[in-house]
Amino acid sequence: MAPPRDALSHDRVLQAALALADAHGLAALSMRRLGAELGVEAMSLYRHVSSKEALLDAMVDAIVCGWIDPSADAPKDWRERLGAIMHRAHAAMLARPWSVELITVRPRVGDGRLRYAETVTTALLDAGFSPQLAHHGLHIVDGTIMGFTAQQARRPTAVALGDRVQSLYEGSLVDEYPGISRTIREHHDHDEEYALMVDLVIDGLARLRDGEPPRRTGLGADYALAIS
Amino acid sequence: MAPPRDALSHDRVLQAALALADAHGLAALSMRRLGAELGVEAMSLYRHVSSKEALLDAMVDAIVCGWIDPSADAPKDWRERLGAIMHRAHAAMLARPWSVELITVRPRVGDGRLRYAETVTTALLDAGFSPQLAHHGLHIVDGTIMGFTAQQARRPTAVALGDRVQSLYEGSLVDEYPGISRTIREHHDHDEEYALMVDLVIDGLARLRDGEPPRRTGLGADYALAIS
DNA sequence: CATCGATAACTTACGGCGTAAGCATACAGT
DNA sequence: ACTGTATGCTTACGCCGTAAGTTATCGATG
Which of B79, B109, B189 shows the shortest C-beta gap to A221? Predict the structure, then answer.
């Protein structure tokens, strides 16, 4: 006969969870509602998912996995390889604003995250980075993707949040915040800005590899050893 | 007589909330428990805080406010000014790991966030950045602080999460993840790495100001206009 | 064909959550 | 002394995640 019934499965639950979050936001993702979406009671989900936490972790991993372009791990220039993954990640996260919250916070490492890390690390090693510097590079790329995207994903809604920002636009807070008042009206395109940041970071990494460390501020820990 | 009773107040609630999160984590911060901590029923808090959301926003703002050094807005070198705020922010967030989740996600802009933005923006404008570039610079600094710190704050717990990462350390996944296997054992100091990132970013900004844009990858949007 | 074991889904229940609505108390200003 | 107002308390509602126990379905076996 057919498979048991409608065959609930880990993957079906996962996909439904992604769809639900896409449609109604992360806050709307409760086990009860997810069950309803699948025509099933909440508790039935626990047959396929050990806890909600585990489900969220699986969602994160599925998304991160999408950062890697499966078609082309081609031997392009390392800058292009890094840039490509950073732009894919950015696009993927902005397409699912709710994912930012999940990804920036969850420590769990799954296959998706590992494959992503492997891709970045390999690109750097292939480009002649030392293991030490490749390690730093991964974290730098990681932080750039998430921080920058988080900050952009957060911004849109800020427009609607009222008097303070509104006043800034109207210029009525010039005395209190002269700097922001001057810059707040600047043209602002997320993708442009991100492209700029990406190139800035990649360029900085290249310089590190070539032994041209950035000019030092006297602040923070000494990283002399890190780039020797 | 004495003030009404023990004089609950917005500030007392806020401080208690910060203390509670510090002591037991963000998940433990419920209105009921917060009330208990203050010797009061949950609902009494709503006299001073309009909702839990508002309270969380206030917590964020209080923390961000601490990123600015109140003593010295001195006319130091702009690199030092920027570096100082970035390191203060980093330290403040790592001291309160739970704050990362809040700050990276909440769009609300309060006075603290505005004062922080003003400080960064002013430093850039004073250094001769165009308003356009100062605007980008603020976002770049913002994203760097949050992304990098988020990524570091998330890492510690990752150690305890089991077989996958463990296996990597033991080298039993060399075939599947050769790159990571080579780099994962590298020495790793959060502060060093962050100092490196900070200098890299500041250096990149300086270069932009001086009209030496980074080498371009052909990816993402065109930012020619942004740095003209 | 009758029976059984396993599997998948359902039911019930518990303790906790944020907060709306209404009530009691105690003070300050007249 | 009286009254308005601020402050905190009580109750209640509808959500949440999930532990524990119950039922229905199905393929394999005698």
Answer: B189
Runs of H (alpha helix) within chain A: 10-24, 31-37, 52-65, 78-95, 97-105, 111-126, 131-158, 163-170, 178-183, 190-209
**Nearest CA distance, B140 vs chain A (angstrom):** 7
| In a shared domain, residues B82 and B37 | no
Q: Is the CB of B191 under 7 A from strand D?
A: no
In a domain, A205, yes or no: yes
Q: Does at least one atom of strand D sit less than 7 Å from the CB of B4? A: yes
Distance of alpha carbon A97 from its chain centroid, rounded?
10
Tell if the CB–CB gap between A192 and B219 is shorter than 8 Å: no
Contact flag, residue A213 CB and nucleic strand D, below 7 A: no
Q: Using one digit for the tens of pLDDT, what is the confidence trace for A182-218?
A: 998 887 788 999 999 999 999 999 999 999 889 988 7
| Domain coverage including residue A173 | 63-212
Nearest to A200 among B80, B121, B204 (CB): B204
Q: Which of A42, A204, A163, A222 has its CA nearest to residue B193?
A: A222
Q: Which pLDDT band holds residue B73 (cuts at 50, 70, 90)?
A: low
Q: What is the pLDDT of residues A90-139, one digit of tens each?
A: 999 999 999 998 998 887 788 899 999 999 999 999 999 999 999 999 99
